[in-house]
Write a structure and sequence with these properties.
This protein is an all-alpha fold. The protein has 8 helices and no strands. The protein is globular.
């Protein structure tokens, strides 16, 4: 995993810790976080937030062995439920970098495009930058395919 994404996921893990009540950002250290059986049970029962967090944990080896393929599995489960703020974005990043899956710019763009359509504010701006960066590596046919896949996925997964 590139240093840039390791840093991103580590920061995300600290935010997860704060949200989960571990303490303030100053008190929460990445090393203190562990995946509990209860947390895993929530993810296995379909809790998208827990699934996304497990994806983060596996992507950086936080309380579990680092395993990009397992991270992708959890990100995909959450992303399929429409978790754009994190899982769809993270899945797009994994496809872009070829981490846990073969590098695939069409899939990367599709997931980043879906995440863009569901995000707002600074998060949306960051995702748009990443999506547009991926597009620079794509042919017009690949870009059209990614956009078609995103439209089809969106139509099959109506928003609440």
């Amino acid at each position: 995993m590139t240093q840039r994404w390791t840093t991103f996921f580590a920061a995300a893990a600290v935010l997860v810790a704060v949200a989960a009540g571990v303490g303030s950002a100053q008190q929460a250290s990445v090393e203190e976080l562990r995946v509990s059986e209860e947390y895993l049970a929530k993810a296995e029962q379909g809790d998208a937030e827990a699934q996304n967090r497990l994806g983060v944990f596996y992507s950086i080896g936080l309380g579990v062995p680092e395993d990009d393929a397992e991270a992708v599995r959890w990100f995909r489960l959450a992303a399929e439920q429409g978790d754009a703020s994190a899982a769809q974005y993270s899945l797009g990043v994994m496809y872009n970098n070829g981490e846990g899956v073969p590098q695939d710019f069409v899939q990367a763009h599709m997931w980043l495009n879906l995440a863009t359509s569901r995000a707002s504010g600074e998060d949306r701006e960051r995702i748009v930058e990443n999506r547009d960066s991926v597009a620079q590596w794509m042919t017009p046919d690949q870009l059209a395919e990614a956009q078609r896949l995103a439209r089809e996925w969106d139509a099959a997964h109506p928003r609440d």
